[in-house]
Amino acid sequence: MSPEGELALRRRADAPRTTYPNLPSTLPAEGFFVPAGPRRDLVSELLPADSFRGIVGKRFGPDATEEAVSVARNVELMDQAAVRRALTRIAHEIVERNKGVAHVVLAGVRTRGVYLARRLAERLREIEGQEVPVGVVDVTLYRDDLTYLRPSGDPLVQGTDFPVPIEGKVVVLVDDVLYTGRTARAAMEAVISRGRPAAIQLAVLVDRGHRELPIRPDFVGKNVPTSRDERVYVELVEVDGRDLVTLREARHGQGLKAADVSDDRGGGEE
User: Fold this and answer.
1) How far apart are CA 137 and CA 170, in angstroms?
2) Tens digit of pLDDT for each residue in 250-264?
């Protein structure tokens, strides 16, 4: 071995070892997750189990592969305060873009988009001292992937309704998550079927990317880079009892169905 190689080995042997003083001497069978694989000897981290869910099996042999382990990640993206700040910022941006709210009509996409639109209306009233009408948009009959989303049974249609005429108005569509863009396109068609607005703008709480249509939001609460194996879940006080946005990763070997990746009007995908 060359002198340089011997020096590298000595440095590695003398390097301080990572210790975990807070870990119990005996780990519970399901308390921690140790990544398995051919290079397991290089793993130097023990990850708390509450960061990962859905572990398959309790014992991993030295020859186990990482593909044999099923992990579902759950990451908090926005808490109640973050959601509130995002909506306040979007409200100010709507005022700035439209030079006030005199001609603005909000349109919430069922289900959670409706509650977000109502919250935005409250903030716009606080900022401008003026009431902003809030309509409700049901995109069910305007989606181009309805067959894939509901392969059996008739779709539940709740209707699109505006409290004022939208002719010549600026209609701001409001939804929780922007994903493929198919729901946004369907929402635009639903709006146009009720009149001819001067403009249609799009406001979303979360933009997760992966667009399939050339649609870009005008107002975004948070941009979240994601993979197609992940889902963004939006919980709101009005529906779920709390405000929380989380990112969850699908387990290995459990691919998402069309309904999961295209739309979830009760969980937050668009």
Assistant:
1) 15
2) 655 444 433 333 343
